[in-house]
Amino acid sequence: DRVTDVTSYPVVDGSQVCAVAYQGRVACFDPIRGATLWARDASSIAGMGLDARNVYITDDRSAVQALDRARGASLWKQDKLQGRWASAPLAMGRYVIVGDFEGYVHVLSRDDGAFVARIATDGSAIRVPPVALDLSTFLVQTRNGGVFAISVQ
C-alpha cells in the first residue's frame, strides 16, 4: 500500500508505524515485515497521534477521529471542531488534545470524543501538535510565540 501526499510525520510505536496523507489514506504498517496491517480512506493536513488502543487523526476539515489501532475500525468522530484548523491530536491518558487557529486547546474524552475542557491561550493559532512533558502535562506553542504548559487530571 502507498501513502502519498504525506503532510505530517509518521508515528512509530512498538510494532507499528502509522501515517496519514492529504487526500489519501491512513494506514498502519508492520515495520519488520513491511506489511500493511490496515488502511482506510482519510485525508489530513494536520497529522495524527496514537496510544496503546487507538489511532487519532485530525482530518482535513478539522474533525477529530478515533480509529481502532488493531483493525482501523472507526470508533468515534468529533465534528464540532470543523473549520477551526485543529492541530494533530495528542493522546494523553484518558484524553485527546488538539489546539486550534484561535489559540484554544480542546480536551476530548478518549472514550467517545466528547468535550471535557476548552482552555484559552493567547488568542493566536496553535499550528503544531501539543507535546507531552509527562503523563499529565503537555506544552502548546502559539503563532505569537507563547509557550503554555497545561496539566490534565
Provide an overview of this structure.
A hairpin with a 5-residue loop joins strand 7 (about 65-70) and strand 8 (about 75-80). The chain has about 150 residues and is mainly β. It has a single domain, classed as Methylamine Dehydrogenase, Chain H (7 Propeller), CATH 2.130.10.10. The strands form four sheets. A four-stranded antiparallel beta sheet has the order 1-2-3-4, with no helix packed on it. A four-stranded antiparallel beta sheet has the order 5-6-7-8, with no helix packed on it. The mean pLDDT is about 90. It contains no helices and 15 strands.
Break the fold down into its secondary structure elements and pairings.
Layout: E1 11-13, E2 16-20, E3 24-30, E4 35-42, E5 47-50, E6 54-58, E7 64-68, E8 74-78, E9 90-92, E10 95-99, E11 104-109, E12 115-120, E13 131-132, E14 137-141, E15 147-151
Antiparallel strand pairs: 1-2, 2-3, 3-4, 5-6, 6-7, 7-8, 9-10, 10-11, 11-12, 13-14, 14-15
